[in-house]
Amino acid sequence: MTSFDPSRRQVLRVTGAALAGGAVAGCSAAPGESSDAGGDGGDGGSDGESSGSDGTATSSGDGGSSGEWTQASTVEMTDQLAYAPKRIEVSAGTTVTFENVGNVGHTVTAYEEEIPDGATYFASGDFESQQAASDAYSSEQAGNVPAGESYEHTFETTGTYEYYCIPHELNGMVGYVKVV
Fold first, then answer.
1. In whole angstroms, how far apart are CA 89 and each of 27, 74, 132, 161, 177?
2. What H or E segment, with its residue span, contains residue 16?
3. What's the pLDDT at 120?
4. Domain CATH for 143
5. Is residue 1 one of the residues assigned to a domain?
6. In whole angstroms, how far apart are CA 31 and each of 37, 63, 91?
7. Could you give the CA distance from residue 125 to residue 136 in angstroms, rounded to a whole number?
8. Counting CB atoms within 10 angstroms of each CB, which of 43, 47, 104, 153 has the fewest?
């Protein structure tokens, strides 16, 4: 099984920022959110933690559990390349709906190494692994959730889950679900 480790994510973010000259990464994050594309170590820095412009902490070591959690079972995917809310908390057994409320297609793709042990892997397109989701999106945009459509997943296992949008990961489109 191939995984997408944090050091590779950081390399991709830094490379993407360098290719875009930093301009796209700096202006495409949602208002009040940091894209972390500038390579400030948000996913692999020495302390493993950085702050968004709103002061909300994000962390690679605790699945993003630093910061505010919103009790919600619906997450919007927006044209600002963000999941809103970014961090949700639900009870075990809750079905979460990821709604695309904008005009740009998005994915919901779990970081395989950032879900609780024993939890069911999830990705729009119902792929069995992160690599399968990534490969399918790259070849035919499989797993894309078009404007006005949604994807649902029921979270049974307690713990913190981290997920991202394949085409917009470099823009900081990452979200978290804490199941209690």
1. 28, 11, 27, 10, 6
2. helix 6-19
3. 95
4. 2.60.40.420
5. no
6. 15, 22, 28
7. 9
8. 47
